[in-house]
Amino acid sequence: MAVGDISILIMILAVVLAAAPQLSVRASSGLPQYIDEYDVPTPSSAPLAVTVDRNGIVWFTESNATKLGRFDPSNDSFREYTVPGAGDMWGMTIDQQGYIWLTQYSLKASVRVGGAVEPGGYGRLIRFNPNNGNFTVINISTPGAFPFRVTTDSEGRIWFTELLGDQIGYYDPQSGKLQTYAVPTPFAGPADLTFDRHGLLWFTETYNQSVAKFNPSTGTFVEYRFSSLDPTQYVGSPVGIAVTPDGIVWVGDHGGNWIVEFNSTSLHVTLYPTHFPPPEVYPISLVNDLLIDGQGRIWFTEHGGNSIGYLDPFLEKMVEYPVPTGPISTALWLAQAPNGDLWFTEWSADKIGVVHASLPIPLSLSVSENPLNLPVGGQMSLSLELNSSQGFVGSGTFEYSWPSYNPGEVNVTFSPQDASLSGETNAQSQARITVSPHTLPGEYVLGLGFDAGTVRVWSMVQTEVTAQTPITGYIASNPWLPVGAIVIILLGVIMIMQRVRGRGRRKAGGALTMRPALATSRIIQAMFLISGVLGVVILVLDRDLRNGAPGHYDALILFVAVDFLVGTLTFQMSEKLMLKVAAIWSTLRIVIQIGDIALAPIFFFTYVEFADYLFNPASMVPATLVNPPGIPSIPIDLILICDVVVLLTVARASIKK
User: Fold this and answer.
1) pTM of the shown model
2) How many other CB atoms are found less than 10 A from the CB of residue 217?
3) Any bridge partners for residue 363, and if so which?
4) pLDDT score for 632
5) Which domain does 556 fall in, by range?
6) Residue 200 falls within a domain, yes or no?
């Protein structure tokens, strides 16, 4: 199952981990208590959506209890209201009149142990009046639509997404009109939504791995699929979304370990990595919700990473606050209070929490060089300086992060790995950075950080990985390559010599005659010779194959060697054996080459996209993967033609016999 297709399943499976022992994060001496948590009065209520009103009152949904919760931070008091109907409530917003709006997917619980989103339920919008405690229910007519997230526009209309209905829509409280619009792509999974300053609605398509823009005035959509924009910047399951005043779109990837910056003008995509959680807890952080504060910082929740964090894109710094309750409290959604505090819900821990954003952080990390330029397979060293202030006393560990499912694409070692600080002192470390020979060339962000227990501080380092790998370095990492090249060349020379010497008889008049078996052998040998040469062309020109799929690259070397070997032995075998070997090898190769389409998910393509990449000479995908035009599709197509010619030749010879 693809990452995008299980995004919501991942979101809810954390309930299983809720049964694990509840852990707490210990603060290092000198660090404030950045996060406070509050137990919700109703047990097993599953707090989910959250918002904060203009008076600083925190409102949140309790999906399992079908309640609306109210928390007053001034006196730490709770109040709960029973919501009409039953079902999950993922979305919440407050309109200009102070009414609270909820989405509800009723009757069919979508959050349950070991379960996924259940289709077939009924959707509602629910309005709550805080002044008199009354609820108003607006039914959504689309069966099984699953209204997910909700927001308001400047005209007071309530906009919502339908996760399973593949629609967006609005409800106008003044006229009572409910209007929906089908998104262009089926099974897209519209998730979170927000308006930009021009009144355009942006939303994520979690199953389509896209963001989309909708113009309410014209009713038109524009979709941006991340894998089509930059295959090196993979976005698996976009959920949370926010837009800056200058039009930069920020997305939380609930299928990855990063937050996403998308420039809709230049179509440039950048992934900023968070920390990697302990592998025994969850392999990736699963960033979900995000928002932009008044300072332009991007705040986000980490479902798998059990943290709340922010990125300062101007300073290229990131800070993460581990949630005290763990290992996974299921912090999914967050909201900002008027005083700047960040409130969030803990679905599996039955708590709400707050990050006191104004509390100072007495630690900062700087690097000696930013940006970096590293070749594939290259190395370099950086100096890190950890600065402390305000009497901080404590210790921690240097660590790194990388925007990939495989952190081994880049390896960073620190010397020293740990640091202890006392008072206003600094600590230094050397970071040795090694880029794997298998890393795709492209633009990345490397995170270099320091974990002090209750806070992590990061420097985000812009890193360009270039394709100009020194050939000596590549040979050094693959010492068998020269030997393989010599063997292939020798086999090719032997085959050519055989063709020169293996001529047919001539009649007296000089006309060339051939025995049928000899003619068949020559055709088959020629096809294998051409196939071998085409394989060498792919080995030389397909940089994406060499850097991104080394196992396939090695297999192609073997294929080329077998081509030359079979061609060399063509005249040494009996006709019967020669026909059998040629038929088996050509058939096997056709099956393998066409069967490569099945590997599409491994390389983050759809099956259609990968087939287009492999076999369509006019495809634009190879150019985005630093390959020359027509590579690898033209050589692959010609190899397939050679294989078909071999099979036809074998069939013709067999029929004549």
Assistant:
1) 0.71
2) 7
3) 388
4) 85
5) 478-656
6) no
Same domain? 608 vs 534: yes
Query: Judging by DSSP bridges, how do beta strands 342-346 and 410-415 pair with one another?
Result: unpaired
Residue 112 pLDDT exceeds 50: no
Dihedral of alpha carbons 356, 357, 362, 364, sign: positive
pLDDT at residue 7, rounded to an integer: 42
Last residue of a domain, one of 432, 466, 500: 466
Distance CA 62, CA 42 (A): 9
- One domain for residues 524 and 633: yes
Residue 285's CB: how many other CB atoms inside 10 A? 29
On the question of pLDDT at 242 being above 90, the answer is: yes
Q: What are the tokens at 505? A: 């008889």
- Does the residue 174 lie in any domain? no
> Diameter of the chain by CA atoms?
114
Find where tokens 């070692």 sit: 413
Helices 633-656 and 575-595: crossing angle in degrees, nearest 10, is: 150
User: Bridge-partner residues for 171, per DSSP?
Assistant: 158, 178
Q: What is the CATH number of the domain that holds 416?
A: 2.60.40.10
CA Rg value for the chain: 30
CA distance 603 to 621: 12
**412 and 506 inside one domain:** no
Residue 27's pLDDT band, with cuts at 50, 70 and 90, is very low
Q: Are residues 398 and 500 in the same domain?
A: no
Q: Where are the alpha helices (DSSP H) in 209-300?
A: 226-229
Say whether pLDDT at 603 is over 60: no
Whole-number pLDDT of residue 528: 87
Domain count, the chain: 2
User: Which of these ranges, 206-210, 372-376, 472-476, 542-546, has the smallest mean pLDDT?
Assistant: 472-476
pLDDT, the chain, mean = 84
What whole-number distance in Å separates Cα of residue 353 and Cα of residue 356?
Answer: 10
Q: What is the mean pLDDT of residues 56-84?
A: 96
- Shared domain check, 499 and 430: no
Contact (Cβ atoms closer than 8 angstroms) between residue 260 and residue 250: yes
Rounded to whole angstroms, the Cα distance separating 306 from 320 reads 10
Contacts of 473 (CB under 8 A, 6+ apart): 375, 377, 378, 437
Q: Regarding beta strands 379-388 and 426-435, do their DSSP bridges make them parallel or antiparallel, or are they unpaired?
A: antiparallel
Per DSSP, which regions of 296-441 are E strands? 298-302, 307-312, 317-322, 331-336, 342-346, 351-355, 363-367, 372-375, 379-388, 393-401, 410-415, 418-422, 426-435
**For residues 336-356, average pLDDT:** 97
Please count the other Cβ atoms lying within 10 Å of the Cβ belonging to residue 279: 8
Among the ranges given (136-150, 365-379, 643-657), the one the predictor scored with the smallest mean pLDDT: 643-657
Return the closest-CA partner of residue 539 out of 439, 632, 440. Answer: 632
- Residue 354 is encoded by which pair of tokens? 């707050």
- 13 vs 558 pLDDT, higher one: 558
pLDDT tens-digit series, residues 566-580 = 887 777 778 888 888
In a domain, 550, yes or no: yes
Same domain, 497 and 626: yes
Whether 4 contacts 237, CB under 8 Å: yes
Query: Is the backbone of residue 246 left (phi > 0), alpha (psi -120 to 50) or beta?
Result: alpha
Number of residues that this document lists for the chain:
657
- Tokens 């290259």 correspond to 378
In which residue are the tokens 């393989």 written?
A: 484
User: Residue 621: which pLDDT band, with cuts at 50, 70 and 90?
Assistant: low
- Alpha carbon 348 to chain centroid, angstroms: 24
Contacts of residue 26, Cβ cutoff 8 Å, sequence gap at least 6: 453, 454
